């Protein structure tokens, strides 16, 4: 009898533990909330750099409202367009499983919301935790229309690190001392590069190093010895950025709503569209320390905004005054040089998944995408519409195809409704011509072909893409964002990708999971994912000037088997073109 009891007791314990786990799992869904918001797109006068501009905002806020949700929650966001421009909103990094109608890129998954019209975005957070963000996806409206989307663990689920005392979101942005839409309009007319920004910002404020800005500098209070979580978002239009805090180390714990192996660093490099979560411990003498960001610029001989934005980390126990009664100036961090690719590369290489992950191995679609700029020749060089290099017009492409957004319908609506003539599905899986991508490229290859070409993927196919930078016009780090998916970054390098030797160095153990990744300047980066989300999903450079020039394409992921592997029907209020 005793022997029987000895074997039964562990079995009962396991059963009880199993039941408890199931109940806990089910209760996490029961605790999920639905968050309702109304986003009114409207103009509002805002003063920066001594001047007042009417900027486009959400609910009169700049930056826009913060969305605080938990894994498993749903959002219902009614957008009311009270501005003068067409607009759409994109929920950057949200998987939007089977629901491209909520993704937002204008003329890709929806027609724009016209002035005076409304549209309600409905979506659910599924197995994502960390920091994402939302932004306008129409022309250059995202210069001022953006905000954070912070996803906390389910109730009862802790962080995989010690719970921080406080959390702060830092949105890095660019400020133009004129209407950003006019900056874009001028560039599209002349064919030249757009004017660079006049300031960088942290939570909409330039900081102490700019005129008329010190009073509104963002301040982060902290107690000596405490640890806080900083959610850092690069919401800048066109610029990768270095970020640092004077005299402090940061511990990276997440990127793009995916946890990472913790590692310490004094500087981070963050591209447009990317997010980075860091833990910061107040372990320095009580004082005021600058939080600062400035450009990481990889394009050769290209103008860029070389200013520095700041916020202030304030130890609560620090005195604000020196002995003479003067305000003590915060300590400024040492930021890398603007072109310090070694530091940027070392930081990116340090990002890994917390443990072993399941990377697709048997690849069904092996794609090789050249990404970069180009120049369109003009019949009248140096005319008012040909102010680019040597009397040309700037363009950009992937595999020599410069993406053209449709104007009469969205790609997804045309596909779903069977409307012909909006797109083709002959996007090339490899460049039409092989060449020395990072060498001296023949000028005959500098002018791409315009087209609205998609690449078709079967549901469930395992995909590898190698993004190869080119030296056409200039080598450059292009932050590539894939809508509707996260992917594993399995490898990167400099020079031309070698399909015979480079895959042997791929990381199939703990590669980072991201939704936006940069191609090394003059190099390559390789990603893998499973095409398990049906619909049409945009892939593009998140430098907005490059997107507008055509550095984009889209995947058409076919439905799988049954309802659970098929796109849901469009909502009744989906805007029509």
Short descriptors:
six-stranded mixed β-sheet, 5 helices, 36% strand, disordered N terminus, apoplast, glycoprotein, EC 1.10.3.2, Laccase
Give your account of this protein's structure.
This protein is mainly β and 577 residues long. Helix content is 11%, strand content 36%. The chain has five helices and 32 strands. It has a six-stranded mixed beta sheet, with no helix packed on it. A six-stranded mixed beta sheet has the order 21-20-25-30-27-28. The chain has a five-stranded mixed beta sheet with strand order 11-19-18-13-16. Helix 4 links the parallel strand 22 and strand 23. The longest helix has 29 residues. It is found in: Secreted, Extracellular space, Apoplast. This is Laccase. Keywords: Apoplast, Copper, Glycoprotein, Lignin degradation, Metal-binding, Oxidoreductase, Repeat, Secreted. Its EC number is 1.10.3.2.
Topology:
Blueprint: H1 2-30, E1 34-48, E2 51-58, E3 67-70, E4 74-81, E5 89-92, E6 118-124, E7 130-136, E8 146-152, E9 166-175, H2 180-190, E10 199-202, E11 219-222, E12 227-234, E13 240-245, E14 250-255, E15 258-265, E16 268-270, E17 275-281, E18 288-296, E19 308-315, H3 341-349, E20 365-376, E21 393-398, E22 401-403, H4 411-417, E23 449-451, E24 454-457, E25 462-469, E26 478-482, E27 487-494, E28 513-514, E29 516-519, E30 523-530, E31 535-541, H5 544-549, E32 552-557
Parallel strand pairs: 1-4, 3-8, 9-12, 11-19, 20-25, 22-23, 24-32
Antiparallel strand pairs: 1-2, 4-6, 5-7, 7-8, 9-10, 12-17, 13-16, 13-18, 14-15, 14-17, 18-19, 20-21, 25-30, 26-29, 26-31, 27-28, 27-30, 31-32
């Amino acid at each position: 009898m005793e022997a029987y009891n000895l074997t039964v007791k562990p079995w009962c314990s396991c059963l009880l533990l199993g039941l408890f786990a199931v109940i806990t799992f089910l209760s996490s869904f029961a605790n999920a909330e639905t968050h309702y918001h109304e986003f009114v797109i409207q103009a509002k006068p805002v003063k920066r750099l001594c001047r007042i501009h009417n900027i486009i905002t959400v609910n009169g806020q700049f930056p826009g409202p913060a969305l605080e949700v938990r894994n498993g929650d749903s959002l219902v966001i009614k957008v009311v367009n009270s501005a003068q421009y067409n607009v759409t909103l994109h929920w950057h990094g949200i998987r939007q499983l089977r629901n491209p109608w909520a993704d937002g890129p204008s003329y890709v998954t929806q027609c724009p919301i016209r002035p005076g019209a409304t549209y309600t975005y409905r979506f659910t957070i599924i197995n994502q935790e960390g920091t994402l963000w939302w932004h306008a996806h129409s022309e250059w409206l995202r210069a001022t229309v953006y905000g954070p989307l912070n996803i906390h663990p389910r109730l009862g689920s802790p962080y995989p690190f010690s719970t921080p005392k406080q959390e702060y979101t830092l949105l890095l942005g660019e400020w133009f001392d004129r209407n950003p839409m006019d900056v874009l309009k001028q560039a599209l007319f002349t064919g030249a590069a757009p004017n660079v920004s006049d300031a960088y910002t942290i939570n909409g404020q330039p900081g102490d190093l700019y005129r008329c800005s010190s009073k509104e500098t963002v301040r982060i209070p902290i107690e000596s010895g405490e640890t806080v979580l900083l959610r850092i978002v690069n919401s800048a239009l066109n610029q990768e950025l270095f970020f640092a805090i004077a005299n402090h180390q940061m511990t990276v714990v997440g990127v793009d709503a995916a946890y990472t192996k913790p590692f310490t660093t004094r500087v981070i490099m963050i591209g447009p569209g990317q997010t980075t979560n860091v833990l910061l411990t107040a372990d320095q003498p009580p004082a005021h320390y600058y939080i600062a960001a400035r450009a990481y610029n990889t394009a050769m001989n290209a103008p860029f905004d070389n200013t520095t934005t700041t916020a202030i980390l304030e130890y609560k126990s620090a005195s604000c005054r020196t002995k003479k009664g003067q305000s003590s100036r915060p300590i400024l961090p040492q930021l890398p040089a603007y072109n310090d690719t070694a530091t940027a590369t070392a930081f990116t290489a340090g990002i890994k998944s917390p443990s072993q992950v399941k990377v697709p191995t048997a690849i069904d679609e092996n794609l090789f995408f050249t990404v970069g700029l180009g120049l369109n020749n003009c019949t009248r060089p140096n005319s008012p519409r040909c102010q680019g290099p040597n009397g040309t017009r700037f363009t950009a492409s992937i595999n020599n195809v410069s993406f053209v957004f449709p104007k009469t319908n969205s790609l997804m609506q045309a596909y779903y409704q069977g409307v012909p003539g909006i797109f083709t599905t002959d996007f090339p899986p490899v460049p039409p011509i092989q060449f020395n991508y990072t060498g001296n490229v023949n000028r005959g290859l500098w002018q791409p072909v315009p087209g609205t070409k998609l690449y078709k993927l079967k549901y469930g196919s395992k995909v590898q893409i190698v993004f190869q930078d080119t030296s056409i016009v200039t080598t450059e780090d292009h932050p590539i964002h894939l809508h509707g998916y996260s992917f594993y970054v399995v490898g990167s390098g400099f020079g031309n990708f070698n399909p015979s030797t480079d895959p042997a160095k791929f990381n199939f153990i703990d590669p980072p999971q991201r939704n936006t990744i940069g191609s090394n300047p003059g190099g390559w980066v390789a990603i893998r994912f499973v095409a398990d989300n049906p619909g049409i999903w945009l892939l593009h450079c998140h430098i907005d000037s490059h997107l507008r020039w055509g550095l984009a394409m889209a995947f058409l992921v076919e439905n799988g088997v049954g309802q659970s592997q098929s796109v849901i029907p469009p909502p009744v209020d989906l805007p029509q073109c």
